């Protein structure tokens, strides 16, 4: 198939970006005194694409890019297909059955770091910030609640730390019951977040070894994998007593009256990175303009999602069966600036789902390094690594250079302001915005790993 030529208007200053990516340009002039505009023709190497996703609200940029025509405006004709689980998504992207996918941030990182199936995967786009919660069964909550501080009006004070869960775990253990919780995948944000939350209260979530790939060595809480849409049913069946998952599956527990969300990942790590969009390195090298065009459409979708007034429409789109397929009222509980904890305890959380602001779409190296430190902390990376290894490894996977080319074009076209492009070396400033107040400096990964009382030391 010949590359499809897709016309876009850009400033002459940026026309070199298109030319360097395989495009052609021709100059045009006008009689106005405005800056000269060049009309460029971008060669789309592969216009017909198939992308995957899991039924979670944070797949929203894919749905919006398709439904609002952003993909089509870039000369892309995209099919967006729901997948059964995260392993299936990983395998299908690696095997070339999917051109790209909504993916757990830890998946491309683990594939490059040597944990699980190995492959050369890249991400030019971060899909969102925050968006997860930890939910426990009604029985567990009834035992936790007396341990949770309350304000003068008798309302529980958030964030709720796992300290309130610790005596409940002890009670279950004394009654001969292992305390079991679910997370969605061994390298998921959810696994690392629930581990962080537990360990911050002195509760050991278990270690991974070559002989124990379940990560349950020395565990006081047994964590196991459950696909996100199956979380509420698994909780209701009593197979697990709690879980960490993305929306709408925490709010679904409230809606069904089977569980209570006790904390969100916004409280565990403020404005933490969540999902990413992933393609193979081979795909990006063979289709560089297509990769830029995809990234452009997704950035526009993220911006649309965070514009005031668009969330109700986004909820309607996501409720469609080909996307998340959940009830609008369940989706709206978290997508429209609120989050319901105990039934009737709906609180304002305007940043529970962030798709664009705070540079949410930019693939920061420091975000990726955090996942690498947690893989090492819990034994998924079995041997100590140098600080340089963390930097080099993440720079092979996170590709802000592709993001920057896409964003520069969007600026020239008037879709985003130039101020939305961060001036950065890819590393965010040092932060202590964690539930335990610990300080994270991505340029000192060894010091960070060694700062924890539970986990590996290097």
Automatic annotation (TrEMBL):
<dbReference type="GO" id="GO:0012505">
    <property type="term" value="C:endomembrane system"/>
</dbReference>
<keyword id="KW-0472">Membrane</keyword>
<keyword id="KW-0813">Transport</keyword>
<protein>
    <submittedName>
        <fullName>Nitrate/nitrite transport system substrate-binding protein</fullName>
    </submittedName>
</protein>
<keyword id="KW-0997">Cell inner membrane</keyword>
<dbReference type="Pfam" id="PF13379">
    <property type="entry name" value="NMT1_2"/>
</dbReference>
<keyword id="KW-1003">Cell membrane</keyword>
<dbReference type="InterPro" id="IPR044527">
    <property type="entry name" value="NrtA/CpmA_ABC-bd_dom"/>
</dbReference>
């Amino acid at each position: 198939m010949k590359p499809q030529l897709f016309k876009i208007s850009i400033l002459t200053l940026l026309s070199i970006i298109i030319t360097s990516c395989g495009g052609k340009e021709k100059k045009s002039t006008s009689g106005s005194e405005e800056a000269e505009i060049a009309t460029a023709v971008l060669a789309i190497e592969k216009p017909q694409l198939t992308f995957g996703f899991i039924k979670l609200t944070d797949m929203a940029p894919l749905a919006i890019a398709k439904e609002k025509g952003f993909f089509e405006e870039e000369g892309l004709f995209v099919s967006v297909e729901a997948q059964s689980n995260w392993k299936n998504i990983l395998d299908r992207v690696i095997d070339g059955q999917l051109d790209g996918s909504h993916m757990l941030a830890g998946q491309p990182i683990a594939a490059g770091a040597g944990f699980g199936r190995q492959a050369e995967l890249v991400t030019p786009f971060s899909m969102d910030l925050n968006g997860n919660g930890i939910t426990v069964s009604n029985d567990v909550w009834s035992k936790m609640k007396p341990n949770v501080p309350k304000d003068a009006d008798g309302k529980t004070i958030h964030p709720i730390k796992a300290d309130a869960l610790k005596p409940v775990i002890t009670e279950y253990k004394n009654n001969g019951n292992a305390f079991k919780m679910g997370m969605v995948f061994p390298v998921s944000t959810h696994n690392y977040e629930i581990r962080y939350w537990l360990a911050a209260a002195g509760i050991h979530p278990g270690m991974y070894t070559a002989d124990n790939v379940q990560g349950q060595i020395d565990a006081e809480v047994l964590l196991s994998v459950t696909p996100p849409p199956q979380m509420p049913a698994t909780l209701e069946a009593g197979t697990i007593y709690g879980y960490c998952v993305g929306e709408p599956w925490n709010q679904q527990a409230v809606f069904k009256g089977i569980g209570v969300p006790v904390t969100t990942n916004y409280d565990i790590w403020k404005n933490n990175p969540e999902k990413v969009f992933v393609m193979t390195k081979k795909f990006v090298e063979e289709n560089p303009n297509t990769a830029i065009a995809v990234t452009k459409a997704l950035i526009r979708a993220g911006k649309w999602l965070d514009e005031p007034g668009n969330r109700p429409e986004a909820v309607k789109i996501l409720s469609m069966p080909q996307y998340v397929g959940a009830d609008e009222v369940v989706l709206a509980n978290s997508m429209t600036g609120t989050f319901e904890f105990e039934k009737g305890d709906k609180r304002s959380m305007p940043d529970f789902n962030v798709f664009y602001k705070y540079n949410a779409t930019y693939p920061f190296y420091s975000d990726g390094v955090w996942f690498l430190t947690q893989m090492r902390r819990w034994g998924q990376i079995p041997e100590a690594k140098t600080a340089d290894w963390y930097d080099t490894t993440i720079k092979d996977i996170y590709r802000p250079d592709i993001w920057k080319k896409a964003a520069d074009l969007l600026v020239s076209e008037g879709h985003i302001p130039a101020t939305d492009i961060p001036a950065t070396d890819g590393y965010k400033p040092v932060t202590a915005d964690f539930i335990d107040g610990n300080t994270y400096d991505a340029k000192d990964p060894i010091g960070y790993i060694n700062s924890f009382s539970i986990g590996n030391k290097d």
